């Protein structure tokens, strides 16, 4: 099987065939894991003329190419860079476009460590950062300054799942000559075609659904043609690279990303609908639910939903939340998500927001629905809600 390039195949087929050159792999279905720093040249002329495909391990390898080639086809951009974590994908994308004196508009519902980087490192670098309401849409123009270089979107928002009007934002931002950077971790390029919607630099925490097994950390950044040079320059200057075992695991995860996401979506929606019907659940934050405020935008722009959403419980004590979560048998209590297993964590989003209000009446819990039997997950949550109701 050779690479398909610009073929008319659908996304599931592309996931299976992209980035694989089995003839060059001696017929083996998967590429070998190539380890190495030094790359030898046959002559001084070759060394100095960079005639080989590879020059140094940090600057690329067949294992790096296997994953970047595959992701490039799936993202539909001009260049893909791989970095050691999702947070590093965020910071590298920002550093690729921002310098001292520039202004950044950052969505208020962003992943908290992204916010930390902006409030510490970027400010120290001399970048002014202001936060905006996720519902801003084309009115982002009113917040832009002459020195605004980039607008960062994350849709749906971390923890509370507000859907942003990315095409409207991109239209307004491009009219002013700035860049749109997106954290596309929730949907992955399979369920949100970021470049098609005007995003210049689209990043994901490959740690989540790309890896899919909670056994690696990785970040991906895809740039369109306008920002490919800036991305390459930042990635090279910062000296970023990923170990070959993690690259291989991510490539392995990529092959099953389509079927896993389809299951996460279907199972997640079933659990979300069941939760919405429970008297002790005040609200379910899941853009694929018809009642969700972001549903229409989600339906217009997304190809599907993943398995991560949140609930607000009826008012109750911290102890009651602990009774709910501590007794769960199938849901793990832990950070990150996107693996095969179900997870639940309590969160408080209100105190960190500065440009939008978030003041739920009851405790809030983020839920990741894994690949277990849905009935078993619902029974586990049912028992948890009974403990919550008894302890409220
Ligand atoms: C987890 C996450 C990240 C960071 O990924 P790491 O690999 O843990 O660094 C970034 N953005 C979002 C939306 C995430 O959920």
UniProtKB/TrEMBL annotation:
Annotated EC: 4.4.1.13
UniProt key word Transmembrane: no
Top EC class, one word: lyase
Catalytic reaction(s) noted: L,L-cystathionine + H2O = L-homocysteine + pyruvate + NH4(+)
Domain of life, source organism: Bacteria
UniProt cross-references to SUPFAM superfamilies, sorted A to Z: PLP-dependent transferases
Requisite cofactors: pyridoxal 5'-phosphate
Keywords: Lyase, Pyridoxal phosphate
Molecular function terms, GO-annotated: cysteine-S-conjugate beta-lyase activity
Pfam families registered for this protein in UniProt: Cys_Met_Meta_PP
Family stated for the protein in its record: Belongs to the trans-sulfuration enzymes family.
Family matches, as NCBIfam families: cysta_beta_ly_B (TIGR01324)
Record protein name field: Cystathionine beta-lyase
